[in-house]
Design brief:
The chain is of the alpha+beta class. Helices cover about 35% and strands about 20% of the residues. A 4-stranded antiparallel β-sheet has the order 1-4-2-3. The protein starts with a helix and ends with a helix.
Length: about 190
């Protein structure tokens, strides 16, 4: 999986560059990303080492069809819009887990205040990736998301505060289109 990820188009979006969460959606539309994994990272200053570091708030995946309606990066947009610091934050249930759960968990773990101007969204673009199965690309993206979470846990000894459980149900597998079609083709 690591070699696949290294070959994907990769983008960084700094929320400080946007005045409204919808601007982030437009930026994702410009690159044309329809399927992706992402990370919300908090940028902070290490006053002892005089460096800028980052820590992952959460990993996720975007695998819906909202882009067909012009809503690019819908999942990222809704979560980003619930990060403190926007002049007008998004309201409603979609994405509110960011402000209700993920940000408080991150702040409690690191004792750092999160403001949208200190957040970057990392995006790995799977739009042109040849999935083993077009029927199960959502499951494939969940497996990649889970890889990011597990890699974080291996490197740091814990999961990101916004990823307390696996993105993939244990025991699930991906079946190729050819096998799927063989099993479920009407005769």
């Amino acid at each position: 999986m690591k070699s696949t990820i290294q070959q994907l188009p990769f983008y960084q979006f700094y929320l400080r560059d946007y005045t409204h969460p919808k601007n982030l959606s437009h930026a994702i539309g410009v690159i044309g990303s329809t399927r992706y994994c992402y990370a919300f990272t908090h940028l902070y200053r290490d006053t002892e080492k005089f460096t800028i570091n980052s820590a992952v708030i959460k990993y996720g995946k975007g695998a819906d069809f909202e882009w067909q309606k012009g809503n690019w990066g819908d999942r990222v947009y809704r979560q980003a819009g619930n990060i403190p610091g926007w002049d007008v934050m998004l309201t409603g249930e979609s994405g509110e887990e960011m402000i209700k759960n993920y940000i408080p968990a991150y702040q409690a773990k690191y004792n750092r205040t999160v403001h949208k101007d200190d957040v970057a969204v990392l995006l790995w673009d799977f739009s042109t990736y040849k999935f083993i199965s077009e029927h199960q690309w959502d499951l494939c993206l969940r497996q990649f998301e889970n890889f990011f979470i597990e890699e974080h846990e291996r490197n740091f000894g814990f999961r990101p505060p916004g990823n307390t459980k696996n993105a993939v149900t244990p025991g699930t597998t991906v079946v190729s289109d050819q096998t799927f079609d063989t099993l479920f083709t009407a005769t």
